[in-house]
Amino acid sequence: MAHYTAPLRDMQFVLYELLDVEKEFAQIPQHAETNRELMDQVLEEGARFTTEVILPLNAVGDLNGCHLDNATHEVTTPKGFKQAYAKYVEGGWAALACDTEFGGQGLPVVLNSAVYEMLNACNQAWAMYPGLTHGAYECLQAHGLPEQRKLYLPKLTSGEWTGTMCLTESHCGTDLGMLRTKATPQADGSYKIDGNKIFISSGEHDMAENIVHLVLARLPDSPPGSKGISLFIVPKFIPNADASLGARNSVYCSGLEHKMGIHGNATAQISLDGATGWLLGQPNKGLQAMFVMMNAARLGVGMQSLGLTEAAYQQARTYAKDRIQSRSLSGPKAPDKPADPIIVHPDVRRMLLTARAWAEGARALTYFIATQIDVELGHSDEDARKDAADMVALLTPIVKAFITDNGWQATSEAMQVFGGHGFIWETGIEQYVRDARINMIYEGTNTIQSLDLLGRKVLSDNGAKLKKFGKLVQQFVEENGTDESLAEFVTPLADLGEKLTKLTMEVGMKAFQNQDEVGAAAVPYLRIAGHLVYAYLFARMAKISLAKQDSGDDFYKAKLATVRFYFSRLLPETAMLIRQARAGVAVLQQMPEELF
Amino acid sequence: MAHYTAPLRDMQFVLYELLDVEKEFAQIPQHAETNRELMDQVLEEGARFTTEVILPLNAVGDLNGCHLDNATHEVTTPKGFKQAYAKYVEGGWAALACDTEFGGQGLPVVLNSAVYEMLNACNQAWAMYPGLTHGAYECLQAHGLPEQRKLYLPKLTSGEWTGTMCLTESHCGTDLGMLRTKATPQADGSYKIDGNKIFISSGEHDMAENIVHLVLARLPDSPPGSKGISLFIVPKFIPNADASLGARNSVYCSGLEHKMGIHGNATAQISLDGATGWLLGQPNKGLQAMFVMMNAARLGVGMQSLGLTEAAYQQARTYAKDRIQSRSLSGPKAPDKPADPIIVHPDVRRMLLTARAWAEGARALTYFIATQIDVELGHSDEDARKDAADMVALLTPIVKAFITDNGWQATSEAMQVFGGHGFIWETGIEQYVRDARINMIYEGTNTIQSLDLLGRKVLSDNGAKLKKFGKLVQQFVEENGTDESLAEFVTPLADLGEKLTKLTMEVGMKAFQNQDEVGAAAVPYLRIAGHLVYAYLFARMAKISLAKQDSGDDFYKAKLATVRFYFSRLLPETAMLIRQARAGVAVLQQMPEELF
Prior knowledge:
The structure is a homodimer of 596-residue chains.
Chain A: H1 8-18, H2 21-25, H3 36-54, H4 58-64, E1 67-69, E2 74-76, H5 81-90, H6 109-143, H7 146-158, E3 161-166, E4 182-185, E5 191-200, E6 210-217, E7 230-235, E8 237-239, E9 245-248, E10 251-256, E11 268-279, H8 286-322, H9 346-378, H10 382-417, H11 430-438, H12 446-458, H13 464-480, H14 487-513, H15 516-547, H16 554-570, H17 573-582, H18 586-589
Parallel strand pairs in A: 3-6
Antiparallel strand pairs in A: 1-2, 4-5, 5-11, 6-7, 7-11, 8-9, 10-11
């Protein structure tokens, strides 16, 4: 069955050698004392906890799923989930990146992200219970009144309570402006909430004593559409002032979904039948408030596919070394055996290296963004905070869509390495493919991410945020353009940067004539931008590794091999994508609707 | 739940307008009287049968799967499968393309293929029971002794008995040379077979009274490796001379696999415990004999993904017209509704058109190949038969790998159209994705197909077979190169043809130095060749449709829209693939095995 070794060496390479996070932390007062020793300790403990406690529950969660008792509306999670969660809370993992004011450890977001990579690699379905909790924590932290924060945040920090985000209704997912759940004001300042939500991840379970639902609903007389939506706190048990549990609220699980993957997570239908809730943030500004949680969730989804990609890679790598089948075309490589291990075959290596490069690229990008969030939240200089916020805004849709599309490809390639055995449940690899599929859909489909990037993040400010990233690329190209040993990386990076600039202008001009040109170009555009980001990060990693390739540490040799594979076999996708992005909307609109 | 309308109009377009099969049949004595009226009747009956009888069993088969009784070794198929199979036999469907000598209807392979498209679209798992039977029929027809043919073929023709191919063992799939199952000669001319097989599709079931296993095994003193493998007929019940059932043979199902998809098909572990078998074909020539069945099966797998692609497209198309969500970026298109149907959004159209173009391309290719098989089997001219055989040999790996890779992409895009609802089992779309995944693996993984194409079919005869296909392209380009209205299709087709020729020479030269260059280039090479074939077929379809676009039949308008989409959004993949195919093996070999 599944095995996993946390890729600590590569995590440390990204944190300390690529991103030099200690230097960044020196400018962030609350993290000034977070040093490498402390981080290593957390990473090593995290590796032990996730591998020993969470990983063994991955297959059983997939096999058994969650069960709803229709009489009590209570949900039982797969065997072992609850006990593992108790250990998670006991170990203080939930509190890692929470504010010390509420009992948290106040550690950097990037360190928490690294722990989440490991959690996701071991068991995405399980990791979604604490993952959504942390999102709810952030939303309450940003928008809660002081008394709301005081009441809820310590329990979310400890993990004793978990959180959810209740947005979707059966008739509206992407278009939340159509939602119908109603909130009726009560004399005591609370609201009665009535409506039905679907697709609520971690929506009901037996792992924590209370669940804090953050629910989107309409106030009476609210404007129609997305400008009339408010956000409410709807706890499963209504807490007393001392956070002890009071009455059971009338928010119930009315059904669980049967899904392609993430069976261990309870995807709940939630009925609110006059449930008591409290307004969170401003009336009619609920969508904006929820976006705090959604942006965190989008980064979280990228981390999920990073975890699955790494885990699937590791399974395939082990199999490719062990499985003997056929001889190398260039002559036997293991003449003592009846056949060669399949890792000698070039296309098996291509599949493995594809998964590996997507994992290493995703790790570099997500840790980079997480560090930028730390800068945004706490840097001593306001301009630095603003720049970081822009970088996070720009790259969030890329983290979500590019990494999850690649994760789908990577897990499928890893499965292919197993041949027929890959299709069998007991082998343990096809679950990664099924689990990875949801990441392209939820928290805004990847099409929505691409529209967010091209429409909202790039074109709406005339490329200002994109130019900020472009400057990083330009600076690297200028600093290293004359170094012949780096030309194999710098030349295609500079070339792609120029092409993306031109493409952006071209699509922008076309969009003046017809806004649908944005929709026609957005998906390939996002992948081109994703490749630019990866090419930049891989080129930086190559520079570091070239300088240390004779250090005796084989890690740098392996890194260079992966980077070279990326540039020669994955980056060429941009040649296709640019043609697709330039193809225009006319060819998509030529077919009349009735002829589909 | 799932719906399906057999795409009869497009099937007829391909058969009668693109391929002009009646003209081909005129040169094939046994099909000289197969006219359009007869074919239309079969297609319409086939559409009715598959949609009414087979389609309703697709979801239930996925949900319930097959069950093995460990005491009796008997397998129960999902509810309704057996009854549907009885109707299939009763309707004479099994006999469609079988020889009249054995009770068949002697109709063309291409007509049978069209029926299989519909069967697969309705229920791939079910269709595999008759599908493998027909493969066994062909193998026995080609290699059986007269008395073997007389005994087995009538029962396989009627469908009263079904067939299997027993190749894989747990330690060998791709590399059958390592197989261990033993055949011991008996005094009466039969053999005792001992061994264990896995992954036997339709390996045991309750749908037919007898199962004819074709089993690969080793004779005593046979040479090691693939040159020491023989093929045996091992019936579940040993038939008497009059084909009545005799003793139960000791060939048993010892387990069923739990799989990602095709749950309705019994993927069996088969134990042969001194089972009685009879040699089929020559001793130690079993692999060659089995290749008759395998080649048929490879075309069959392409047909499976064609069916799934069409079916998934139809589900997504219906949803995209019904589901309202968000407004078009260029202004409301359904102002009377609270939101626009999602088919107005350019990227939803891209996903739909991707699936549609892959379906229409696959239909053209598979019907083309099937017609070539009819020519190969029965044309009055020997050279015509030889040319057709070369075409079938060349294109078989493309049918298998290109169509199934595209089917995986198409079903996944179709699922994405559904947003969150796509991930839910009850929606019925995610099953197509899971079912489609096996098609990239079995009957030779898609990597094996690519090695077969580039190594065995192209380089080993210095491109002779490829040149035969190239001549078709060249001829079309010469005939239509001066027609400006066709330039949008002819120019990229001619360009790709030239590039493939150059690439073939380049890889061939590199392979002289290092055979592993073939393995490094083969997968992208196959997809480039696949695109050349599709570009050729789509260009021909465009020519026909342009000539008839003012006929008042909207079919031609829709065809042109699909073809233009293919050329502008799918064909550009070749820009990536050519770079990948040229990247060479060094970048794949740079990573030492121990550093993976």
